[in-house]
Amino acid sequence: MHDNSRAVIIGGGIAGVQAAASIKGMKITLITDEPYLPYYRMRIEEILQGKAPESLYMHPAQWYEEKGIEVVRGRAERIDTADKSVLMADGSSIPYDSLLIATGSQARKLPLPGERKESFVLRTASDAMALRTALGKASSFTVIGGGLLGLEAASAAAEAFGISVSVIETAPHILPRQLDEASAEVLQKKLLERGVDVLVSCSCVSASDDAVHLSDGRKVPADVLCFSVGVNPGKEIAEASGIASGRGILVDRFLRTSAPSVYAAGDAAELDGRTFGLAMHAREMGTAAAAAMMGNAAEYVPSEPSALLKVAGIDVISFGVPEGEARVETDGDKRRTFFIRSGIICGAVLINDKASMMSVRAMIGRKA
Ligand SMILES: Cc1cc2nc3c(=O)[nH]c(=O)nc-3n(C[C@H](O)[C@H](O)[C@H](O)COP(=O)(O)OP(=O)(O)OC[C@H]3O[C@@H](n4cnc5c(N)ncnc54)[C@H](O)[C@@H]3O)c2cc1C
Question: Per DSSP, what are the bridge partners of residue 199?
Answer without folding.
Answer: 168
